[in-house]
Specification:
The complex is a heterodimer of chains A (273) and B (279).
Chain A: H1 2-5, H2 10-40, H3 45-58, H4 70-102, H5 109-124, H6 127-138, H7 142-166, H8 170-177, H9 183-222, H10 225-234, H11 238-269
Chain B: E1 2-10, E2 16-25, E3 30-34, H1 41-49, E4 56-62, E5 68-70, H2 76-84, E6 86-89, H3 101-106, H4 115-120, H5 125-137, H6 153-166, E7 171-175, H7 183-199, E8 202-205, H8 209-215, E9 218-223, E10 226-231, H9 237-244, H10 248-251
The chains are: A mainly alpha (273), B alpha/beta (279).
The structure holds adenosine-5'-diphosphate and magnesium ion (MG).
């Protein structure tokens, strides 16, 4: 609209032409990438659709779900929930430590660099890699799962926490330091009050992520409902597998509702009080 | 008493920011610092507080009991001891916004309670009651439970003063405490600071020569990092012109009326409740 009102000058026209060319170029590149990778991965478009229908027809083996196995699913579901419920607080506690140590406006360089380094490495490592390494070291069971999720939480929450602290107005921190407060008092009375609500909201969100991840990790050795699902599939007990899927859905969906509610409360009221 | 002696500060590139600032603030004084923006007023206060390290010179705080603190050279515990004796009135927006007003006031005494208690328990009821008294002094006691971020600029400025009062310092320092306020709020704040200075000296940076002329006992002017005036608060037009140069016209605003005009912001008439304010 503003373009129609202003008189198009030669430079404005040239600008727009250049922009148009850039869009065309980007679209061409994207197209080439998609087609190229499809060829590389041998995506068979013609064979894909019948395959899809065949896959869908397999779904009928999953119905009706084996309601009788529900009782056996409750235990593993609780294990999965427990895995996330134990791992998240540990992850949160570690994240607070690493976040404080990694914030440029609080911690000295010799501490900040390694803390940020650890956070970055944890972010880069996929959870499955961590779990497989830990299973090799600690054996199969829920414990390596807990450690994996706790470590994974630090990669995300530690980073968010450190960044949030760095965004606090330096003058607010100075104004507390100027009454003679120690560094830890500054943390307690200026830093934590300013960043805690958003940090809590992120931690609750991370619990949701950890719950979904703990289903997946269950299938590769952490136990719980994920393991149940995997066993049923391996034994071709599809109705039982379907029941495991339904229990998982209920678990994750329920956790999501609760987490949504808590998160909104934390952000609106600034705390859980 | 505050003795500032030949404070010097330069940038790495050689630009001189402070070029030998010296002055003294004694009991009973309300000293206003004037100067164009960029003259080095804030930097002087920052050097006194140890927030910025001076290259040379010294600042010394001498307590009524004779204890003395070398402000420019002390660090760690000594520095915290010294800072706890200086009540800094920051601009109000530097309060911790998510805390209650009362918590922001009580922060003033963090250095005077045991660190472990400050972490685990917080302040006692007696301390809270005293903090409410400080709020009462600035006419803000009804705001004690409000979240600080929801206050107006003038209200936050009063809370910042209450924090400094609650700290029970032996010197008040203020950096442009009325810069962000409208005339009637500015006047109210000046009327708050003036009686404080009778018992505890106040050193404040101001941008309104008419305010310092009316309320201060002495004025110091800083120009390009040096003190160019130190004396009676009433400065002549020629002297102000010398201090401010091109900025003079921005600084000389019409003097606000002695009482906040009716129908202006419904802030409390602070001055009226304090004893001995000038009529
Ligand atoms: N950290 C800093 N780095 C570089 N220059 C600074 C720094 N702090 C202040 N200055 C410069 O010092 C001069 C004085 O600043 P300041 O004391 O804030 O001025 P004012 O008198 O307006 O309060 C200004 O020219 C400013 O640009
Ligand atoms: Mg300044």
């Amino acid at each position: 609209m503003s373009a129609a009102l202003s008189i198009p000058t030669a430079t404005a026209r040239a600008d727009r032409a250049r922009r148009a060319w850039r869009i065309v170029l980007a679209a061409t590149l994207m197209g080439a990438l998609v087609v190229g990778s499809a060829i590389l991965c041998r995506v068979d478009v013609v064979g894909f659709l019948p395959g899809l229908f065949q896959g869908l027809s397999v779904l009928r083996f999953f119905f009706p779900p084996d309601v009788g196995s529900l009782a056996e699913m409750v235990g593993p579901a609780l294990v999965t929930l427990l895995l996330a419920a134990v791992a998240t607080p540990f992850g949160v506690a570690l994240s607070i430590l690493f976040g404080l140590a990694g914030a440029a406006n609080l911690s000295p360089a010799w501490l900040r660099a390694p803390a940020r380094g650890v956070i970055a490495v944890e972010r880069a490592l996929p959870e499955i890699v961590v779990l497989l390494l830990l299973v090799a070291a600690l054996g199969v069971g829920p414990f390596p799962g807990v450690v994996t999720l706790a470590i994974g939480s630090v990669g995300m929450l530690g980073r968010l926490f450190a960044d949030a602290i760095e965004e606090i107005d330096a003058r607010v921190i100075e104004s507390v330091a100027c009454v003679g407060a120690s560094r830890w008092q500054v943390v307690r009375y200026a830093v934590l009050p300013e960043v805690m609500p958003s940090f809590l909201a992120n931690a609750i969100f991370r619990f949701e992520i950890n719950l979904r991840a703990s289903v997946l990790l269950g299938a590769v050795g952490a136990g719980g409902i994920g393991l149940e699902l995997q066993k049923a599939m391996a034994l071709l007990e599809y109705e039982r597998a379907m029941m495991a899927v339904l229990v998982t859905l209920a678990l994750v969906f329920g956790a999501e509702r609760i987490s949504d509610f808590l998160r909104r409360r934390v952000l609106e009221k600034g705390g859980l009080r | 008493m505050l003795h500032v002696d030949r404070l010097t500060k330069s940038l790495p590139d050689g630009r001189v920011l402070l070029n030998g600032i010296s002055f003294t603030v004694s009991r009973g004084e309300f000293v206003g610092i004037l100067g164009a923006s960029g003259a080095g007023k804030s930097l002087t206060l920052r050097c006194i507080l140890g927030l910025t390290k001076a290259d040379a010179g010294s600042a010394r705080l001498v307590e009524p009991d004779g204890r003395s603190f070398e402000l420019t050279s002390c660090t760690g515990r000594n520095q915290r001891e010294a800072r706890r004796r200086m009540g800094v009135i920051f601009q109000g927006f530097n309060l911790v916004k998510r805390l209650r007003v009362l918590d922001n006031v009580m922060i003033g005494r963090l250095a005077q309670i045991h660190p472990l208690r400050s972490w685990l328990y917080g302040f006692t009821d007696a301390e809270a009651e005293e903090a409410v008294q400080a709020l009462r002094q600035v006419k803000m006691e009804t705001y004690a439970d409000r979240v600080t971020g929801s206050l107006s600029g003038g209200e936050m400025q009063r809370v910042a003063i209450a924090r400094a009062i609650f700290q029970r310092p032996s010197l008040f320092l203020a950096d442009e405490p009325i810069a962000a306020l409208d005339p009637s709020n500015s006047l109210a704040i000046m009327k708050l600071l003036q009686p404080l200075s009778r018992t505890t000296p106040v050193l404040g940076v101001f941008h309104q020569p008419e305010m310092t002329a009316r309320f201060c006992t002495r004025v110091i002017a800083i120009k390009r990092g040096a003190v160019v005036y130190d004396g009676a608060p009433g400065l002549s037009h020629a002297e102000l012109e010398e201090i401010y140069g091109d900025e003079l016209m921005q600084v000389l605003r019409p003097t606000p009326p002695a009482a906040p005009p009716a129908g202006s912001e419904p802030g409390p008439a602070v001055g009226l409740l304090l004893p001995n304010h000038p009529s």
